[in-house]
Amino acid sequence: xxxxxxxxxxxxxxxxxRGPLETLQVNLxxxxxxxxxxxxxxxxxxxxxxxxxxxxxLVLELLEASEAATLDLTGGAPELNPQFxxxxxxxxxxxxxxxxRCNLTILSESGQENLAEFLAAQRVGVVASMPCYLERNVxxxxxxxxxxxxxxxxxxxxxxxxxxxxxxxxxxxxYNPVGPYLPPPQAPLEADYKEHLRAYGIEFNHLLxxxxxxxxxxGSTLLSKGQYREYMTLLxxxxxxxxxxxxxxxxxxxxxxxxQVYDCDFNQMLDLPLQVNGAARTxxxxxxxxxxxxxxxxxxxxxxxxxxxxGSSCGGALSG
Length: 320
Hints:
The chain is α/β, with parallel strands linked by helices. About 30% of the residues lie in helices and about 10% in strands. The two termini are about 35 Å apart.
């Protein structure tokens, strides 16, 4: 696989510092039942990295000790980690908000038959990848049959109350472009999604638009097709200073399956660790003894993906 990392390290992206910690985003491992073209994690069925119980316990210790109000669980498919349900239950018992970044087809996998009911019982917010409302586009990006599998997953979530404003069970979908261009404006695209998915009997709360990052599998595709420089020119040319205060790295830390800490999920994939007191790497256990507020954030050329156009974060567009 071609690697964009050496091209991303030298940058003139504006300097950033961390604010108060609001979200602990935890990658439970890179194993996934899908293998998507846009995946910046390079996740797939053959990945073996997985968070062990001892590290999961450290996650819970930090969650309880810190000011973070949200535990954001991601992967791969986070539900494939045996620690997933314990983390959800313990975090909810602390009164923390929990988000499951779900690929939808996991709801049809063996051993996950009651996943929708579990998520609803724990009142977990679901953020589900659905890169298009057209079957041909979804299958081209994520694999044959994924669209229909996603529809089945959405119906299961709707059946237990997700997407219904009366229940308070949030079901938000995620759009990624199918190629090297920026997402369209979030609000009108959300309206289009709702219109098309209602034809399948699907309801959801909000659509979140995310920019594809030029790293791992998507970055390799850009290089192999000779599109990397053109894409970076697009991101840099669309940079908006007004998006800088809202970038996710200012209020979030990303934890990998080993317990190593990063400023964001993208830095995790580029192996750019959060650095405390000059140390090359920082582990979860170090943060039990200190705050990360005010620390400098490690930036690279990929950061333009978060500030281009309407902006992009784990919560969708930064500006309307």
